[in-house]
Design a protein that fits this description.
By secondary structure, this protein is mainly alpha-helical. About 30% of the residues lie in helices and about 5% in strands. Strands 1-2 form a two-stranded antiparallel ribbon. The chain has a two-stranded antiparallel ribbon with strand order 3-4.
């Protein structure tokens, strides 16, 4: 007789008890591991990986330190996507020798928008309706622009700064003839300037309050505190630079140095809305105010996130200007986009080529920046 073995037959398939036991053990091990990482605090899970400790250290001092890691990054088993991403992390950890270059992919950056919207619903709505809320199609399928300027890798510096590739892998053909199309049609509706283009989340700061000492110093000497959460993402470096560390640009108007606002937020704007290599005001995408508005900050007229300017005049001007006229009805681009007098560069002489008339008696006094 042949020796007996612990074999059985189920649904026509042979199996062995040791194999079943091993399978069950493996299943419980995986489920237990996922459960541990899913429900344990990150201090006992994520930061055990040395690659994550630097990011965690920044988070503990950031304005988001009361927000759980899972709220922005998701859990270990939230979806098939989460399982796939975690498997990739383990693979790269075991196969790569460098572990200090951890960055979010563009897909992950776009997924972060949902987390941002969850807490910052108003700001998200403003951004979505403003000029910065546009998508890839709105920028790269603009036939009028594409016919006058050929797309190049430098375009990705401000539009699509998280895109993982070159312009040639995004759009074809790269010429001024067209017709143009995305190599991946799914890119068309993707946000081209997401929240993380201007914000870094693991940044130090106090949420919604300033220490008394800093407030006293600001009242005497101007702002003395940093808001590192406002930062420009530099595609080439793969990292953020806080606005306080950005340089004040040197702008010239026909050889004359232009007075540029010292507002750190404007330094963020000029990273993309920049003049040519010679710093000539009004060239390239530059919007630095000259003329009657020289020295004003972008934020003096543009609302954050939405970039709306509808209430900007009322912030500085009285009901009537020094000319005795309502400034919102003057012939400038504020009233009409067809006006030849750009609100960023308008001068008194643009409307008064023969000379600026004297102030009318009884007109309201001009105060603030409008008095310049």
């Amino acid at each position: 007789m042949k020796p007996t073995s612990k074999k059985g037959k189920r649904d026509g398939a042979w199996y062995t008890l040791p194999a079943v036991t091993a399978g069950v053990f493996l299943l419980f091990t995986v489920a237990g591991g996922l459960g541990y990482f899913e429900f344990s605090p990150p201090e006992k899970t994520c930061i055990n990986c040395h690659e994550i400790r630097a990011s965690h250290a920044h988070w503990t001092n950031s304005v988001h330190r009361s927000v759980s890691c899972k709220q922005c990054h998701g859990g270990s088993a939230d979806s098939v996507h989460a399982l796939r991403e975690n498997a990739k992390r383990v693979f790269y950890h075991l196969t790569e020798t460098r572990h200090d270059n951890i960055r979010l992919s563009e897909e992950q950056t776009v997924r972060m928008l949902g987390a941002c919207q969850g807490c910052h619903a108003r700001e998200f709505a403003y951004w979505q309706k403003g000029g910065h809320g546009t998508n890839y199609a709105g920028i790269f399928m603009d036939a009028k622009h594409n016919k006058t300027e050929q797309m190049a890798d430098e375009c990705l510096r401000c539009h699509g700064m998280f895109f993982e590739g070159k312009m040639s892998s995004l759009v074809t053909p790269l010429d001024t003839q067209g017709p143009w199309r995305f190599r991946n049609p799914g890119m068309a509706e993707r946000p081209v300037i997401p929240c993380l283009a201007c914000h870094q989340l693991h940044a130090p700061g106090e949420p919604f309050k300033r220490p008394a000492a800093q407030m006293a110093a600001a009242a005497t000497n101007g702002p003395a505190f940093r808001r590192d959460i406002l930062a420009f993402y530099v595609r080439q470096e793969g990292t953020h630079f806080a606005i306080d560390d950005l340089a004040v640009p040197k702008i010239f108007d026909q050889g004359r140095p232009v007075k540029v606002s010292s507002d750190p937020r404007q330094r963020l704007c000029t990273q993309c809305h920049a003049p040519n290599a010679f710093g000539q005001a009004g060239t390239g995408d530059d919007r630095t105010p000259t003329g009657v508005h020289e020295g004003l900050s972008c934020m003096a007229c543009h609302a954050p996130h939405s970039n709306d300017t509808r209430a900007s005049c009322a912030l500085c001007h009285p009901a009537r200007s020094s000319c005795g006229l309502d400034v919102t009805k003057m012939d400038t681009s504020f009233r009409s986009g067809m006006s030849k007098h750009n609100i960023h560069t308008v001068r008194c002489l643009d409307c008064h080529p023969a000379g600026v008339p004297k102030k009318r008696e009884g007109s309201a006094p001009v105060s603030g920046p409008a008095a310049m």
